[in-house]
Amino acid sequence: QQQQSNVITIDNKEYETEKLSEKAKFCIQALSSNQAKRQQLEIEINNVDVCLSHYSKELKKELIDLWRSKI
Prior knowledge:
Helix content: 55-70%
Largest sheet: 2 strands, antiparallel
C-alpha cells in the first residue's frame, strides 16, 4: 500500500511537508493565519467604507433639510 505524502508548493517548487523543519511548518501556519486575518480585515474595511458612504449621504440630506427650513 502506497502512502501519499502531503506536498506544498512554494515559489513553484514542491516540498514534502513531513520533510520540513518545525520552524518552516510554523512559518507556513503563520502565513496562512495572517492571510486569513488580512482577508477578514479587508471585508471589515469594505463594510466601514459602505457605512461611511451611507452616513455621509444621510448627513447631507439632513443639512439640506435644515437649510431649506431656514428659508
